[in-house]
Amino acid sequence: MSIGANYAEAECAISDHDFLAKIYISLKECNETLYWLRLLRQVNDLDEKAFKSIFDDGEELKRRLVSIIKTKRKNMCTS
Prior knowledge:
Elements: H1 2-11, H2 16-42, H3 48-78
Helix pairs in contact: 1-2, 2-3
């Protein structure tokens, strides 16, 4: 999964800007994953219970990635 791979790369970033770039890519991949989940649900390839569980986890991950980005940007501005 590209979300996790980019997050793992961010952990070894060579700069704050590199870290943010990798986290942004994780966020974009997360958003794309949520899109595909919605599409699978619409064509009935994913039952409602499974969809809700996976989608809710994806939304939580998205919120956490946004929080990381906001916190990092704030810290970069104050240092």
